DNA sequence: CATCGCATAAGAATCATCAA
DNA sequence: TTGATGATTCTTATGCGATG
């Protein structure tokens, strides 16, 4: 990727981030591309230079968020941390990202009706890919004997469900920083799968 | 009251054109 | 040549009075 392409990517990223927050504030239908453009002190013509149309902007924004999540978890998976630590990190990192880009993830829930089938299917594939990474991390813990013999799918959905529900109750003004909070939640969720001393004795 | 037709507005998308 | 502009055209939604 040459310099020019990198620059263009940065610009696209900036537009996508602006779009995510504008869509979150005014809803997709309620927001105009002028709103998005104004946030970056550009004109809507410039937005059309980078994106085919409004729907394309929404689609690419969501792909962008998901791909970032995927990269994050893949990085953790490839690291040489103990399995227990990997899952714990994946959880707290997911939480911090969801809080950080809360608005974008919220709108992902309602985008099914807006995006084309192909677009939505691609989003789903990315989500599945993310879940798969999570499953692999959990499996690792089980194989290494630090987690209980759990049903991976159920455990994964419980963890993801708990994390994604967070965006409904999290508030900026809370006492805990998002870092503290994510660590706490990771701690609680981990207890669902971690072996306790009792488990160790049995097996 | 329902609805038809029309005016108006707002937003989406295109296009000629410009500056760096 | 590329990125960006802003005027424009196209499209859709909204209001609203006239008409049956």
Automatic annotation (TrEMBL):
UniProt keywords, alphabetically: DNA-binding, Repressor
Database matches in PANTHER family: ACREF/ENVCD OPERON REPRESSOR-RELATED (PTHR43479), ACREF_ENVCD OPERON REPRESSOR-RELATED (PTHR43479:SF11)
One Pfam family per UniProt: TetR_C_24
DNA-binding positions: 32-51
Domain HTH tetR-type: 9-69
PROSITE patterns associated with the record: HTH_TETR_2 (PS50977)
Record protein name field: TetR/AcrR family transcriptional regulator
GO MF annotations, alphabetized: DNA binding
């Amino acid at each position: 990727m040459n310099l020019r392409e990198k620059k263009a990517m940065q610009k696209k990223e900036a537009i996508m981030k602006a779009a995510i927050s504008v869509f979150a504030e005014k809803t997709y239908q309620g927001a105009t591309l002028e709103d998005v453009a104004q946030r970056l002190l550009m004109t809507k013509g410039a937005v059309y230079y980078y994106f085919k149309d409004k729907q394309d902007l929404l689609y690419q924004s969501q792909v962008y968020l998901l791909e970032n999540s995927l990269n994050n978890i893949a990085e953790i998976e490839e690291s040489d941390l103990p399995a227990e630590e990997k899952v714990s990190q994946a959880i707290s990192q997911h939480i911090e990202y969801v809080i950080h880009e809360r608005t974008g993830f919220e709108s992902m829930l309602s985008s099914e009706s807006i995006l084309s089938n192909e677009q939505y299917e691609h989003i789903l594939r990315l989500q599945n890919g993310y879940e798969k990474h999570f499953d692999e991390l959990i499996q690792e813990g089980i194989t290494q004997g630090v987690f209980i013999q759990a049903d991976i799918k159920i455990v994964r959905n419980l963890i993801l469900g708990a994390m994604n529900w967070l965006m409904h109750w999290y508030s900026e003004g809370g006492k805990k920083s998002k870092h503290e909070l994510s660590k706490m939640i990771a701690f609680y969720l981990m207890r669902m799968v971690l072996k306790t001393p009792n488990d160790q004795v049995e097996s």
